[in-house]
């Protein structure tokens, strides 16, 4: 329990970190795990690299090597030993190169130099392939043997250049520019065998990456092994894990092309044979339908006579049917004709009744009209004014019905049956009105 708590405290307190030192007491177990000590001038610590990490290392650990490791600080509970679990390792001094590689990659990537949409498609059937590599490179032999096996009919152009050492990047870029200026190839292979980061550093040059991107010919980069990545890989139109794979990407296999061509030829033959059979059947059907013109005309004449007879019969039947229907309609019309003499006698009998009813209705309407006229006369304002009443209004023309609405010096207008006068109120007296004097205008 104590060891477990101590291990948990150590792993939580120390995140993944890089530690540098010298390898000593190296032991490679049969299980694939690697055990060693990492030491410097002041101290040492036990380290373990498990098999899944050791298989990805790509180079061999040896005693006396100075390395940099990314570690998880932990405690081996079974023995209570303090140790470092190795997650990744690199040779000492490679850290700065790798940091330069990462910074330059981020810079070019931010400029869009590695954008997928800028990549060009490789030609499906190249007529000539250019190879940029060293004459002494083993990768050249792999590429040549692969192309000879897959596509011996394709022409090859070699652009020799150093692929390692001082000034190699500039010479590789010059070879690529030369290939682009000549324009004699359909695709370009940039290849080199595997190696450590220092060996492949020429392919991490910024100028080389820009030259690859600006080359008018599609570029396939096959540098190093499958786990090796360089800026040239990202800048190229296609990245191949090995030089051999680059040759396979550049040239289609001749045998496969011939096999596919044979399949197309057989399919075309089958299609032609099928079309010929269909055309022959159609021709036989047309020949069966073909008749002598005289026989065709005789058939058309018989058809025409038959149609004429049917038309005559149809016209006769239609005219007979219409004549019968017209006779029936005439008979129905005769029966539905009205008796005008009887209706005239009834009209003469109704006339006196109509005159009497009209006079009665006229007398009743006249009486109602006289009654309404008398009522209207009683309600006429002129008749009221004629009896001595008057109408008092204020300046705005509103009728005054109560003296309490007036103040001294108010201007009023008094309207009579004939004419009107304007007056000024000198005093206001509020008195109770007699019942018969209500609503009498003020004089």
TrEMBL record:
Annotated localization:
Cytoplasm
Q: Domain Exonuclease VII large subunit C-terminal spans what residues?
A: 113-423
Checking CDD domains in the record gives: ExoVII_LU_OBF
Q: Which GO terms describe its molecular function?
A: exodeoxyribonuclease VII activity; nucleic acid binding
Query: Which NCBIfam families has this protein been placed in?
Result: xseA
Q: What does this protein do?
A: Bidirectionally degrades single-stranded DNA into large acid-insoluble oligonucleotides, which are then degraded further into small acid-soluble oligonucleotides.
Q: What is this protein called?
A: Exodeoxyribonuclease 7 large subunit
Q: Which gene encodes it?
A: xseA
């Amino acid at each position: 329990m104590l060891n477990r708590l101590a291990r948990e405290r150590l792993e939580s307190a120390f995140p993944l970190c890089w530690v540098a030192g010298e390898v000593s007491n190296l032991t490679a177990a049969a299980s694939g795990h690697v055990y060693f000590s990492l030491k410097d001038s002041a101290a040492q610590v036990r380290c373990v690299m498990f098999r899944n990490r050791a298989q990805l290392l790509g180079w061999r650990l040896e005693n006396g090597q100075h390395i940099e490791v990314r570690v998880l600080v932990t405690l081996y509970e079974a023995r209570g030993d303090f140790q470092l679990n190795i997650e990744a390792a690199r040779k000492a001094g490679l850290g700065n190169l790798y940091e330069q590689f990462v910074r330059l990659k981020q810079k070019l990537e931010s400029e869009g130099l590695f954008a997928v949409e800028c990549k060009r498609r490789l030609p499906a059937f190249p007529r000539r392939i250019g190879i940029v590599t060293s004459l002494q490179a083993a990768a050249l032999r792999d590429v040549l043997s692969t192309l000879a096996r897959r596509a011996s009919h394709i022409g090859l152009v070699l652009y020799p250049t150093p692929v390692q050492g001082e000034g190699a990047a500039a010479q590789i870029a010059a070879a690529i520019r030369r290939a682009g200026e000549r324009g004699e190839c359909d695709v370009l292979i940039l290849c080199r065998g595997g190696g450590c980061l220092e060996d492949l550093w020429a392919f991490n040059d910024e100028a080389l990456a820009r030259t690859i991107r600006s080359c008018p010919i599609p570029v396939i980069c096959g540098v190093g092994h499958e786990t090796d990545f360089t800026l040239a890989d990202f800048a190229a139109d296609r990245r191949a894990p090995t030089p051999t794979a680059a040759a396979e990407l550049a040239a289609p296999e001749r045998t496969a092309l011939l096999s596919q061509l044979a399949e197309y030829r057989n399919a075309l033959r089958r299609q032609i044979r099928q079309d010929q059979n269909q055309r022959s059947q159609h021709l036989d059907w047309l020949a069966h339908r073909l008749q002598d013109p005289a026989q065709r005309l005789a058939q058309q004449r018989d058809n025409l006579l038959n149609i004429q007879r049917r038309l005559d019969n149809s016209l006769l039947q239609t005219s007979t049917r219409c004549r019968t229907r017209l006779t029936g309609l005439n008979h129905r019309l005769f029966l539905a004709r009205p008796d005008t003499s009887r209706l005239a006698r009834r009209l003469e009998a109704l006339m006196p009744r109509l005159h009497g009813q009209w006079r009665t209705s006229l007398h009743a309407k006249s009486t109602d009209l006289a009654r309404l006229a008398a009522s209207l006369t009683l309600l006429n304002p002129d008749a009221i004014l004629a009896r001595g009443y008057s109408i008092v209004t204020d300046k705005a023309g509103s009728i005054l019905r109560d003296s309490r609405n007036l103040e001294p010096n108010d201007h009023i207008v008094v309207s009579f049956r004939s004419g009107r006068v304007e007056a000024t109120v000198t005093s206001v007296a509020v008195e109770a009105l007699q019942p018969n004097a209500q609503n009498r205008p003020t004089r």
